[in-house]
Structures are given as structure tokens and as C-alpha cells.
Amino acid sequence: MYAIVEIAGQQFKVEKDQKYFVHQLEGKPGSKVTFDNVLLLDDKGKVSVGAPAVNGVQVTAKIEQHLLGDKVIVFKKKRRKGYKVKNGHRQRLTEITVQKIGKKATLKSETKAEPKKVAPTKSEAKVETKKVAPTKAAPKKAAAKSKKAVASKTKKES
Q1: What pLDDT score was predicted for residue 139?
Q2: 134 is a domain residue
């Protein structure tokens, strides 16, 4: 039995009791995390493909430890220019162990039916349907008077 699940923005093919290194997740070592975004589920040859996710299926995993990945060196150079830059980083990772692939555990509160809403009484319905008198619109302001441009009285010399 395996599933394809999206974890921290990446897709992983996971199987029960296998260890995986994923981008760092929130949570302390020893705590459990669940992933609801299961894209595909293969249960002994019976394949369920989600659109986009399979309904009612989740993957439960245990956080083993938080660690740093291998060092990645980024080296830039332009020949004959004396330009060399060396940078690098170590990616933060989380080691998880898949414990269970299966149906979501339904809570008792989810299975209980919601209480029915009581229909409003006739007096309440009448109060809600009162018509509101239309308000008068504010009077429109008159357009501002435009000033005429003063013609210049300069004489042309010829």
C-alpha cells in the first residue's frame, strides 16, 4: 500500500514504516502530524485517484528529528576579471516516519446532526418585512462659475 501525498509543497510517494526527509515542518520531535492532501492511493492494486485529492484519506507520520541537509556550495566566477564569489547554505529538513495510511478518523461531534433551526413566528416575520421610507437625495450643487481668461494687451512690433 502506498500513497502520493503533498508535504510542504512537494509530492512524495510514501509507504508505511518508511523514513523520509522533507522540508522543515512545525512540531517537536516525537509529535505526530497528519497530511490530508493525498493525491493518489494504491491499496493492493486498487487505485484511487483524487481530483485534486482523495476524499476521506490521510497520512499520519511521526516527526523523528530536525536536522540540516548537506552543504550546498554556490561559486560564481568571471574569468580574467578577478571576480570570485563563494556562497553556500544548508537546507533545514525534518525526518519523518510514516505510521499510517488510511481513512480519516471521524470525530463524534462531526457525526452528530446539527440541531434544526426553528421557523420564525409570524410576528417576527412581520417585523422583518417592514418597509423603510426612501430617504430624500441631497440637492445637487451648482457648477462653479468659470473665470474668463484675460487677454494680453501687448503690441506686436513689426
Answers
A1: 72
A2: no
